[in-house]
């Protein structure tokens, strides 16, 4: 008699044989063969296909027996069954902990059912996604219903105008499901994107203490997320992602209908229109939710054919390409070329462009929309057929990848055992056959995607034929003498040196070992580059800079294709490298920045702060907070891309110095805000939220204070960040999670994680170098202080130089309430009455110490002037301003409004502490010195210049210092 696994492919048969006795130590039970399938061979096939199925059978046999007796695995998992089955699990629930346990046990059963039927192909794609989506709906609704009743008992019932009748009535939450959940197309192991809303403002009634409706629903939303997302001994239910809500992670967790409508009307972005195409009320007040969806419909679907959407579609196409290149996603069947997202993108493009006119397109399910596109003759039948077949194949493959281990992934396997599993699940004899079918589908999708979402660049041909001499030069068809003469005749200022560089590149070992395609691309690219270099004033010098990049991308010739297909980008590359070796170095270190050169308009016009926030939100949207490594890499790329834009704008003169510093500071603030959210979310998932004295949980109660150049809005391209961390929570209380820790420990770990994200060296380098020495008690002090401890230290222990530093401090990221509390403390400290003579002497003494340790030694002062540290330099100006601030804030409290030198100077003039003429002159000197430092940074030069520079400016600062500080 053969074994149950004997018909399986060899690696899988061996795998099942090795685990069979541990899964079924007493043999396969009769209840399983009768309820789960027709034979032991079927069961062996399920064990072969999924490690998850194997583990559930091994660890929870009693639970499996109960579940299969309640409903055979041979029967579909319907919404009606799920609703009824949830009631069985809900019966014993009597507190929040048992609710969490019931939800997770319910998940184990339903996940087992869905994966079993899907991987054995007893269910088609439609059944699998419908069952998974219905399961999510049931869990969200079940948890919300129980938690809402419990919250009403504690805080009273929220009341306000009913959105349907307008009458005063109890209010309930509306939960919008986005993405695949909204479209009822959820994966078997997926996160869920949610937005929480409530009808209107008002207050609770009947509780121990009334709270406003928004507070009630925010707390309810936090508890709902924990019920679904928190990992306990029983696992979790769904990973919950709330970043699609207005303002992303920094926005309120729950908003009223009016606030949602106002946001989307006034600030809604194109990508948020895409997200809203799938939005659906998945739980809560369905009648109120229907009213909300009607109010939001005009934001999603325009009344006219919306051809303006094409520009954003092109931008999104470019973003897809960048993501694929950045992450190396060729093996990702969702995000890679020809993957699931390209099909979704094609369909949503038509929905947004024509959905306002053709209401048939205002549906959510992708396959339904594809059929409508054919009937409306918007896509040819053969295209629809190929996209549909590819979509079904790719989604089934996605479920195969995820069902093997109940893990959210879209990456193809690399080991032979999992390749064999996937091939078996997909119905192929071997992996090669499966891979060939996959490649055929992906090629067809990629072709249709490129044809439908074409860009102007895709349709343009090259910039014309190059002179043949460049080709002959690069391929060494000319001898050395002729090559040097050719380069000299075309403007190369150091023709022999350039020839030597090219010869060394040709003889480079990496070039010698390139594959055929890579060598062909290099041979196309180099002549174009050499010709483009003739358009700048210093082609030889620029060539030496650009070759750093060429060497960096020899093994990644897709970047050469990008430049070949976009001659304008090649022109920008040459121009910027000609003007700045710093930019050349950045591009060589991070070739992905070449994408920024594709659009000259955005390259030379960097975004405002709100656009920076939106750009970061969009880029980080699909990266889970728990994937810290990918978060860190993406943040580093985001920063580098925007630094390149700023440097390009400064070099081209489209941004003056003051604006450059503004943008650099905004960039740091946007990054810091996101880092706080990532670190906070990461800790909350482990330990729960920090509690407040009134029993409520904190949004964060944490703030980052920027000192120095960050506080003074004067960041440079390579500036580090002087930071201080404070929080407003009670350190004696603890978090509300199952692995509870003291608030003080929570915030210390939060600070440590923030520093780790910013300061760790990754393949993409540092995000920011962080200096925490300005915190109370310096390096010997706590990493994170309470506001109370911070204020106490500033009042009783801080040195004068620490109050000088406080003059340039301001809150830059974190909780708004905590930031406001810090600003109040700063104002009070700066406005303290001081002994002016003592203050003056202490400032002078500190300046002398700094000059001695950091300034130019006397032996070199005849030759060198250090713009920042030497007499008459930037630090003298900063100390003058700080002294005048500390000496006069008590009499002029309005001086504390600003933290930057420029506006502090202006304010000192306005209140009469300095003459307006002096403040204007000092301002001009300060800007001139800082501009020089900026320009030198872009040339990879330090802050030292020849001693004869800035004679008038230095004399003026010396005189002012003498008049004010020495007397």
TrEMBL record:
CDD domains: NT_GlnE_GlnD_like
Catalysed reactions, as listed in the record: [glutamine synthetase]-O(4)-(5'-adenylyl)-L-tyrosine + phosphate = [glutamine synthetase]-L-tyrosine + ADP; [glutamine synthetase]-L-tyrosine + ATP = [glutamine synthetase]-O(4)-(5'-adenylyl)-L-tyrosine + diphosphate
Species in which this protein is naturally found: Marinobacter similis
Protein purpose: Involved in the regulation of glutamine synthetase GlnA, a key enzyme in the process to assimilate ammonia. When cellular nitrogen levels are high, the C-terminal adenylyl transferase (AT) inactivates GlnA by covalent transfer of an adenylyl group from ATP to specific tyrosine residue of GlnA, thus reducing its activity. Conversely, when nitrogen levels are low, the N-terminal adenylyl removase (AR) activates GlnA by removing the adenylyl group by phosphorolysis, increasing its activity.
Domain Glutamate-ammonia ligase adenylyltransferase repeated as annotated: residue spans: 43-289, 571-823
Adenylyl transferase: annotated segments: 466-967
Biological process terms in GO annotation: regulation of glutamine family amino acid metabolic process
Similarity comment text for this entry: Belongs to the GlnE family.
Gene3D superfamilies for this protein: 1.20.120.1510, Beta Polymerase, domain 2, Nucleotidyltransferases domain 2
Gene label: glnE
GO molecular function ontology, one term from the record: [glutamate-ammonia-ligase] adenylyltransferase activity
EC number: 2.7.7.89, 2.7.7.42
Domain of life: Bacteria
Keywords: ATP-binding, Magnesium, Multifunctional enzyme, Nucleotide-binding, Nucleotidyltransferase, Transferase
UniProt lineage: Bacteria, Pseudomonadati, Pseudomonadota, Gammaproteobacteria, Pseudomonadales
Domain PII-uridylyltransferase/Glutamine-synthetase adenylyltransferase: from-to ranges: 314-452
InterPro entries: GlnE (IPR023057), GlnE_rpt_dom (IPR005190), NT_sf (IPR043519), PII_UdlTrfase/GS_AdlTrfase (IPR013546)
SUPFAM superfamilies, per the entry: Nucleotidyltransferase, Nucleotidyltransferase substrate binding subunit/domain
CC cofactor: Mg(2+)
Region Adenylyl removase: start-end pairs: 1-457
One Pfam family this sequence matches: GlnE
GO cellular component terms, semicolon-separated: cytosol
Protein's recorded name: Bifunctional glutamine synthetase adenylyltransferase/adenylyl-removing enzyme
Coiled coil segments of this chain: none
């Amino acid at each position: 008699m053969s074994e149950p696994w004997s018909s399986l492919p060899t690696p899988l048969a061996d795998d099942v044989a090795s685990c069979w006795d541990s899964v079924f130590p007493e043999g396969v039970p009769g209840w399983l063969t009768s309820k789960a399938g027709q034979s032991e061979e079927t069961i062996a096939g399920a064990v072969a296909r999924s490690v998850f199925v194997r583990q559930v059978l091994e660890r929870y046999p009693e639970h499996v027996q109960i579940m299969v007796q309640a409903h055979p695995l041979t029967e579909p998992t319907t919404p009606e069954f799920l609703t009824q089955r949830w009631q069985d699990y809900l019966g014993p629930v009597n507190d929040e902990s048992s609710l969490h346990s019931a939800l997770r046990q319910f998940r184990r059963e339903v996940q087992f059912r869905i994966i079993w039927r899907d991987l054995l192909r007893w269910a088609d794609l439609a059944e699998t996604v419908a069952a998974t989506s219905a399961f999510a709906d049931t869990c969200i609704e079940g948890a919300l219903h129980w938690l809402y009743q419990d919250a009403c008992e504690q805080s009273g019932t929220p009341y306000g105008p009913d959105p349907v009748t307008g009458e005063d009535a109890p209010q309930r939450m509306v939960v919008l499901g986005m993405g695949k959940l909204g479209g009822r197309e959820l994966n078997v192991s997926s996160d869920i994107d949610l937005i929480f809303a409530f009808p209107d403002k008002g207050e609770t009634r009947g509780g121990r203490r009334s709270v406003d409706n928004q507070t009630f629903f925010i707390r309810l939303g936090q508890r709902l997320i924990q019920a679904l997302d928190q990992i306990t001994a029983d696992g979790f239910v769904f990973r919950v992602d709330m970043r699609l809500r207005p303002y992303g992670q920094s926005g309120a967790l729950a908003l009223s209908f009016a606030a949602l409508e106002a946001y989307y009307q006034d600030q809604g972005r194109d990508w948020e229109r895409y997200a809203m195409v799938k939005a659906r009320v998945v739980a809560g007040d369905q009648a109120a939710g229907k009213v909300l969806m009607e109010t939001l419909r005009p934001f999603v679907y325009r009344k006219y054919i919306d051809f303006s959407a094409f520009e954003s579609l092109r931008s999104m196409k470019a973003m897809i390409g960048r993501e694929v290149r950045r992450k190396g996603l060729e093996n990702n069947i969702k995000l890679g070329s020809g993957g699931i997202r390209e099909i979704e993108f094609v369909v949503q493009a038509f929905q947004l462009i024509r959905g306002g006119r053709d209401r048939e397109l205002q549906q959510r399910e992708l396959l339904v929309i594809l059929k409508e596109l054919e009937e409306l003759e918007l896509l040819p039948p053969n295209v629809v057929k190929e996209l549909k077949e590819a979509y079904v194949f790719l989604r089934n493959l996605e479920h195969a990848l995820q069902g093997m281990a109940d893990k959210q992934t879209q990456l193809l396997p690399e080991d032979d055992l999992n390749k064999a599993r996937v091939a078996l699940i997909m119905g192929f004899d071997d992996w090669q056959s499966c891979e060939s079918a996959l490649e055929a589908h992906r090629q067809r999708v990629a072709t249709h995607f490129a044809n439908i979402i074409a860009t102007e660049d895709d349709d343009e041909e090259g910039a014309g034929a190059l002179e043949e001499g460049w080709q002959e030069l690069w391929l060494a068809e000319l001898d050395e003498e002729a090559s040097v003469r050719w380069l000299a005749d075309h403007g190369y200022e150091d023709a022999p040196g350039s020839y030597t560089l090219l010869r060394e590149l040709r003889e480079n070992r990496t070039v010698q070992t390139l594959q055929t395609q890579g060598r062909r691309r290099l041979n196309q690219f180099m002549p174009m580059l050499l010709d483009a270099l003739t358009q700048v004033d210093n082609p030889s010098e620029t060539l030496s800079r650009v070759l750093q990049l060429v060497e960096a991308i020899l093994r990644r010739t897709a970047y050469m294709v990008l430049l070949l297909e976009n001659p304008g980008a090649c022109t920008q590359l040459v121009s910027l490298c000609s003007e700045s070796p710093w930019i050349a170095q950045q591009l060589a270190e991070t070739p992905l920045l070449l994408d920024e050169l594709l659009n000259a308009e955005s390259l030379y016009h960097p975004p405002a702060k709100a656009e920076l926030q939106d750009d970061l939100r969009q880029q980080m949207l699909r990266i889970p907070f728990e994937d810290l490594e990918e978060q860190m890499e993406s943040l580093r790329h985001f920063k580098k891309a925007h630094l390149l834009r700023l440097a390009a704008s400064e070099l081209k003169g489209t941004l003056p110095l003051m604006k450059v510093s503004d943008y650099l500071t905004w960039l740091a603030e946007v990054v810091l805000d996101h880092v706080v959210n990532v670190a906070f979310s990461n800790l909350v998932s482990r330990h729960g939220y920090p509690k407040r004295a009134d029993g409520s949980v904190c949004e964060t109660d944490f703030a980052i204070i920027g000192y120095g150049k960050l506080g003074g809005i004067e960041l440079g391209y390579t500036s580090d960040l002087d930071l201080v961390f404070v929080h407003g929570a009670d350190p004696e209380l603890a978090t509300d999670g199952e692995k509870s820790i003291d608030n003080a420990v929570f915030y210390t770990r939060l600070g440590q994680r923030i520093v780790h994200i910013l300061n760790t060296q990754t393949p993409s380098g540092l995000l920011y170098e962080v200096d925490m020495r300005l915190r109370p008690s310096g390096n010997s002090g706590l990493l994170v202080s309470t506001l109370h401890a911070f204020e106490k230290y500033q009042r009783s222990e801080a040195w004068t130089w620490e109050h000088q530093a406080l003059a340039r401090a301001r809150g830059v990221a974190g909780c708004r309430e905590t930031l406001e509390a810090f600003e109040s403390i700063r104002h009070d400290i700066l406005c303290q009455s001081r002994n002016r003579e003592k203050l003056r002497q202490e400032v002078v003494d500190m300046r002398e110490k700094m000059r001695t340790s950091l300034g130019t030694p006397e032996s070199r002062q005849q030759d060198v002037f250090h713009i920042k540290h030497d007499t008459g330099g930037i630090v003298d100006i900063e100390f003058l301003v700080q002294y005048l601030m500390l000496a006069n804030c008590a009499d002029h409290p309005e001086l504390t409004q600003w933290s930057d030198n420029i506006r502090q100077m202006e304010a000192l003039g306005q209140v009469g502490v300095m003459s307006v003429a002096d403040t204007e002159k000092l301002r001009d000197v300060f800007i001139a010195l800082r501009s020089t430092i900026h320009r030198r940074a872009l040339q990879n030069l330090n802050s030292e210049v020849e001693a004869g520079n800035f004679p008038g400016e230095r004399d003026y600062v010396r005189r002012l210092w003498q008049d004010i500080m020495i007397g």
